[in-house]
Write a structure and sequence with these properties.
The protein has 1 helix and 9 strands, in the order βαββββββββ. It has one helix at 8-12, and strands at 2-5, 21-24, 35-38, 41-49, 54-60, 74-75, 82-83, 96-97, 104-105. β8 and β9 form a beta hairpin. The protein is elongated, with a radius of gyration of 25 Å. The termini are far apart.
Length: 131
Amino acid sequence: MRIAHWDVKKICDKDCEDFDFIIEIDIPLTFDRNLLKINGDFYYKCSWDMKRDIIFVKRINPIFEEETYGEDEIKCPHCGANKSDSWEYSDSSDSEECQSCGSIYSYQRNVEVSYQSTLITKNETYDEVVS
């Protein structure tokens, strides 16, 4: 089995064999865990070409934090993967499984309220006092 960098243009070309290979391994990998560590670097498994026996991966920089704050989307505190459809989720969860690394975490939606005012009509009647 060979592992190569994700390149959608090359992957879509069925005749292409000019991939940027990272490593060749003798053990089979599955997609039950999407996070892969190769020579100290972390990768996300993107797709598997079973015919050519190639797993295509994208390098990631995991954050390995216990918590994340102030994010625009739900983010896995372990690997940093974002849920781009966060707005569809409920306000909080007891547990959520990361689809990238398989870690279990909970999230909470924090809502911040702010206001904007726009002048419609300016009041120009007032009392003037001159000394």
